[in-house]
Amino acid sequence: MTTLQQFAWLTRRAVVRTLRQPAAAFPALLFPLILLAVVAAGLGSATDIPGFPADSYLQFALAGAFVQAAMVGGINSGADLAVDIESGLLDRLALTPLRRWALLLGQLSGAVTLALLAGVLYLAIGLLFGVEIAAGVGGVAVILALAVVSALAFAALSALLALRTGSSEAVHGAFPLTFLLLTFSSFYLPRTLIDVDWFKALATYNPVSYLIEGVRSLYIDGWDSQALALGFGLGAAIVAIGIACASAALKGRLAHR
Amino acid sequence: MTPSHGFDIRAEGLAREYAGAGRAVDGIDLHVASGEIYGFLGPNGAGKSTTVLMLTTLLPPTAGRAAIGDLDVVADAHAVRRIIGAALQEVALDPMLTAREHLHLQGALHGLRRAERVRRCDELLERVDLTSVAGRKVSTFSGGMKRRLDLALALVHRPSVLFLDEPTTGLDIRSRTALWDDVRSLARDDGVTVFLTTQYLEEADALADRVGIIDDGRIVAEGSPAALKAEIGAPSVEITPVRPEDAAGIGATLAPFGPSVAARDGGLSVRLAGGEAALADVVRALDANGYAIGHLSLEAPSLDDVFLAKTGRPLEAASDEADALETREQVAA
Predict the structure, then answer these.
(1) What is each CA distance from A189 to A203, B21, B207, in whole angstroms?
(2) What are the helix (H) ranges across chain B?
(3) Quick check: A91 and B58 CB within 8 A?
(4) CB atoms near residue A44 (< 10 Å)
(5) Residue numbers in B near A250 (CB within 8 A)
(6) CB A206 within 8 A of CB A185
(7) Distance (Å) from the C-alpha of residue B180 to the closest C-alpha of chain A?
(8) Could you list the pLDDT tens digit for every one of the 257 residues in chain A?
(9) 3-state class (DSSP) for residue B50
(10) Cβ-based contacts under 8 A for chains A and B
(11) Which of B80, B100, B109 to mutate: most A Cβ within 10 Å?
(12) N or C: which end of chain B has fewer CB within 10 A?
């Protein structure tokens, strides 16, 4: 069996597993919507600030929902891997002629599935509430692609945590971190309008800002090559570093428990 | 099933040391012949599972070596994995997948092509009696069903050597004997070499061609169950008094007949140094002292007697000690 076929089998398993756990999938889809509804209702007057880039706050904040769903889906995916470690399933898989990267990437596919489901749902809701995609139909595909890259990034980091700790509780414990990352980003306000220096600095160094701005640019501005390069570039870098570290952690776990 | 051929298990000075926790396995030598069922008997924490993890390539030894056939478990780990199957202590299943999906996934990862995979899955489902529930998610399975599926998964790729780590722990008697039948058939009909760990004396006795008794990381006795029991020789007599207050007096009366051994709750037991012939004298002595006997039985030597003779404590007590230690460690942590 080729490594690609192994990957396909593990992808299938991760997708089936994700879709059969609605209790885990629903929060990933619904939390971002609830937060979106709350901030859109509470911070609507922000649109009056001179230089605010959107007509409605919901339109502005929608991008954050894609990234938040990617974070929650990523954590779920890492927690699933930790459960495999706890149950001994990882050992069973290790006793097959399975390639490490097929195992890792297959595992991440659950998060990708959830990110795509969330992406389509949020786009539909956005369109329903009058959000227009400035970059057109092609922009829709790129929004989903950036959502997938974001999901892969968080799933890879979450897999690393799972492999280092071997504990699903430890992975679930990372949930509060996702709220911090979201809060100290450009989710609530454009970075140009944040006038508190330390907050602005945090948002500037926070990669989540660029994932959100990449998505946001596609429906507000059209094709903004700088925003897309930063979003995809940082996302891909996190994916690469996360997978490389997770792969090393997997090797270590299988060789030296 | 196509008969499997010719892989034995060898270990020389095999050891595993955990940082700060000492040696879990302390230099064991093993040889399990091809097609043999080898029972690895010992209390919790004796080093059984650590040995299995090393023999199945999942844990590198810190000293010594082990091989499956001619393949070293460290240097040839990938090749070893193709010829062994393992059902480890915890049933390793995804609760969200069905039994059939598990078997297909495992078969595919082992490289079985679709037609062969379908045939093999049906055959194994039949073998472990799960055909009627093959489409149900594993989360709905009983403990026995999960154990049987776990065994089927270990067999998907027709391994020549099978490792079963406490395969019947938590199973009811019916499921346990069904699994014993499966294991016997694998060795007898298919020529599979079986390495089975257990803390159940009757399991090792009923199933294993040879038994290795492990305690505190070392093999303390090895041989066929019959040979090990023959080493002990004398039977024991167990007596339960009608009046619990007679226990001390009965103990004193029994003392001249041989050393005291472990007995059921409320009972007293001694190994009869004079053999079965001493039983009549025991009864006469008890009668002469006026003790009322509720229950009296003559027990042939068991593997527990072997364990007691080799380690100085009964197997059950050793397991309880290990459990208590584990609990203390968890509380301390």
Answers:
(1) 10, 53, 71
(2) 48-55, 77-83, 99-109, 114-127, 143-155, 173-190, 201-207, 225-232, 247-254, 279-288, 303-311, 315-332
(3) yes
(4) 12
(5) none
(6) yes
(7) 22
(8) 788 888 899 989 988 988 888 887 888 889 899 999 999 888 888 888 888 888 889 999 999 999 999 999 999 999 999 999 998 898 888 888 888 888 888 888 888 988 999 999 999 999 999 888 989 999 999 999 999 999 999 999 999 999 999 999 999 999 899 989 999 999 999 999 988 999 999 999 999 999 999 999 999 999 999 999 999 999 999 999 999 999 999 988 876 55
(9) helix
(10) 71
(11) B109
(12) C
State ipTM: 0.81
The identity of residue B255, as a single letter, is: A
- Report the gap between the CA of B175 and the closest CA in chain A (Å): 22
Backbone angles phi, psi at B205, to 5 degrees: -65, -45
- Alpha-carbon distance B99 to B144, whole Å? 13
Residue type at A129 in one-letter notation? F
Which residues face B23 on adjacent strands?
Answer: B17
Whether A254 contacts A94, CB under 8 Å: yes
Per-residue tokens: A55: 């007509």
Q: Which of B60, B111, B137 sits opposite A256 (nearest CB)?
A: B60
CA separation for the pair A190, A212 (Å, rounded): 10
Asked whether the beta carbons of residue B58 and residue A95 sit closer than 8 angstroms, the reply is yes
Distance from C-alpha of B236 to C-alpha of B54, rounded to nearest angstrom = 38
- Residue of chain A with shortest Cα separation from B114: A1
Q: Is residue B106 within 8 angstroms of chain A, CB to CB? A: yes
Chain B neighbors of A107, CB-CB under 8 A:
none
Comparing CB atoms, the residue among B82, B105, B137 nearest residue A97 is B82
Q: Give the separation between CA B7 and CA B161, rounded to whole angstroms.
A: 7
Residues of A in contact with B105 (CB under 8 A): 9, 13
